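Dear colleague,

As promised, here are the two records you asked about, laid out in our usual form so they can be pasted straight into your sheet.

NAME FIELD: protein one
SEQUENCE, THEN STRUCTURE:
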Amino acid sequence: MVEDIFINKFLADMINLTNTTDTEYGLKDYLSRMFGIENITVKMFDTERFNQSSLEAYISNTKKSYIDNEINEYSAFPELLNYRNNGYSSCLIAPIKVDNRVIGEVNLFSTHPNKFTPDISSLIELSVTLFGLNLYYSSEKKKVERITSYFDASFNSSVPQALVNSAGDILKFNKQFVNLIGSYPEDKKIASAIGVNFSDLYDLTDGKYIQKAIKNGKPVRINSYKIRDSLIHITLIDQSEHELLSSINSAINLQNQFLILILDDKLDIRNFAGSLYDKFNEIHDLLTGKNLNSFVGEANGKLIDESLKNQQSFKSTLQIEFPNKSINGRISIEKCSMGYAAMITNIEKELYAENLDNTLDDFINTTTDMIIKVNEFGYIEDCNDPTVKNLGYPDKSGLIGKEIKSIYYEGDLETFDTNFSFIRKGEPINSISSNMIKRDGDSIPVIYSIRRIDDKSSQKYILIIHSLETKRELQDMESKLHKSDIQAKHFKSASDLKSEFIYDITHELKTPLTNIKGFAKLMKDGEFGQINEDQASYLDTILEESDRLMLIISQVLDAAKLEADKVKLDVREVNLKELYSNPSIKSMEEAAKNKGLSFTWDIAYDVPNIDADLNRLIQVLVNLIGNSIKFTESGGITVKIFKKSRKSVQFEVNDTGIGISDEDKRKIFKKFYQAPKRGLVKPDGTGTGLGLAITKDIVSLHGGKIRFDSKLGKGTKFWFTLPITYKNKASNKA
């Protein structure tokens, strides 16, 4: 048992430690010296907790410490094997808890087995608990400091305000508060100052307020904000100015584009009324006391200050950013006895009308149809370039000023006059067939529509005219597209024949190659007589090249089968935790180690079984791991498997190799494309350039997606996701 005197000293040291400026460093240093622990780290979790390891997830979910006094290959969490490989024998992972939430963990690793006895573990967990409490205290302290800073700044504003405790005592107030109530009460009670007690003020929540006349007869609006159960913050709004503004508002019958502001000498808003008043009523306190310049931007604020200083007035059009509302406003400010009076006129509708004219002009100038603008007397005011081009004029000056009827075919004029009489009454005219007269006298078949536009002082008409020659061009284009579609189908058929040919020829190549390999092996084994060392070496070369050729043929055959739609998945339930023991994966691990690379297999503890074709899944992993080995000179390869969501599992293959250039990234999944091996001291042999294309097709057949990320010279990460449940069990043909 740990002696009581040791425990008392430990607690005293920990309490002193929590009062230091760098508690985290002090905690690690103290525990290291006190218990002889070689590796101590503190990790704080992200709020979203993305990409947590299985051990971190365990700590977060259980809120308990994890102790392993004999780290080995049978440890519950695979990530501990990395520490075992680095010489550590025991560990304690303790959660950092704040307000019953796990916000991080302290990781302690020792090279000695059975280091973390119950006594030592309980003391370490106690120290981590104190560390968490210190974090909570620091957070609360900063919160209080922010609130204090807020009130210090708030009490410097022009709004009368005070802090009141549950006994009704005024704890703090500003001079505007005293100026409004007339004199400060001797008993320092809020009831004596404004005639309202603490309990009534405490109940003012959800936007409620009290409006009354205080002892000096001034009408005020009282708002209250609860800081805590025993403390409230109140503000007073002088309503005498509001009553004056309301009278002005009624007298001039403001419409919905005006706002009147009463400002003090510093341009702080004392009150406001007008058309926007109701819309801002719910945020009255957010405007009152704020400076006008804070809503118009720094540059405009300087212009206003300079103009008021020199001329005691200001007039301009500005973009004004009120809380939750932005307007284009015409603003006028004049000096008055109260400070300044400002009127803001919302000119959104004026700008909208101007924009309509501009938009119409833009439409006329950008559309490919003929557009003609006609005045109320039937004469052309403007037209666009397609009109000039289709009617054969050198420029629009030859059309402007002409009567619109003069460019229509004589036989269609009666119908045209009838349509114009309808459009003058406001009825739209749509898709009327007619003929127009070109400059050289030829006619052009068209379909036209007419719309009336009510301008500020007159009526105008817009003719939208579609040339049927354009329609014929579109029909020709459709005919060409149809021919292209037939050609595409022909090419598709040719592509299918090519795939069938490749499939057949590669299949036929496998039989003689198998015979060559088989007889070469028999010869090496001495079935046809004793052979010498040179002959054995030649036969080894034949066998190695046969294996390489067989791999190439298999990849070409796979690619052909995928392209010819002949791949069927043998979907069964796959235990992902057993993948590591697969001979193909083991051979990849052996190949990595033979090249001097590290190989890490990291599978999360909560990974479920999935529906997949095991052989094809192994093929995908071998392709990705094999590429990593091929393009990596030093460092290592890491394979991770974890549950990405409720419906999918993610596989990752990371390496520290030469990376992929931006140019190669666009081609990496193309068939027969081979990335250059720039940067490799000893480049491996070339492949077929089919591995990644086949990998992508296999992942797609499973209903998954594959992605990659790489930086040249810094390594590559390939990852793919597979659904936990295969959706096409009934028919798993590609």
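NAME FIELD: protein two
SEQUENCE, THEN STRUCTURE:
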Amino acid sequence: SASVLASSILKREKRKRTKNVHFNCVTVYYFTRRQGFTSVPSQGGSTLGMSTRHNSVRQYTLGEFAMEQERLHREMLREHLREEKLNSLKLKMTKNGTVESEEANTLTLDDISDDDIDLDNTEVDEYFFLQPLPTKKRRALLRASGVKKIDVEEKHELRAIRLSREDCGCDCRVFCDPETCTCSLAGIKCQ
């Protein structure tokens, strides 16, 4: 007699479904730069922002995108190293800023060649990071992007915001007097 194993529909083993996400391309939207009015830099004005609509779109394969990011980061690193070299040369020429040097004052980034920096022995992934930009550089970026008039009032508004952030909370101890509480007067719950 042949034994037949009957499989139960109640004890059927559930098939494990593997849920994977696969990416095959990267879509990058490019926006023109404009004055931002939405951030508060640690100093100065001329915040950076972007226009409300993109002006171009580009599709990359994952490999192309990785190569493009590497190229961009390497270019940013090159500029950063050139700026460091320029500042180092100026400091050397002025004996750490103690001596006036006409030659140091005339040096520009154009005077620093790629041969003066060691980009080959610098690992881009380890070195690349975002840094705050000084006001002068932000203004230059805005002008290069076609911003004709930079709102100078923003600088004063940002200074007021930074000053207000230095003062936090109120002096209330046991009870809050809404008439004198700085939190209440500012329209927020007593701290």
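A couple of things worth noting about protein two: Strands lie at 25-30, 33-35, 48-50, 56-61. Residues 25-148 form one domain.

Best,
R.
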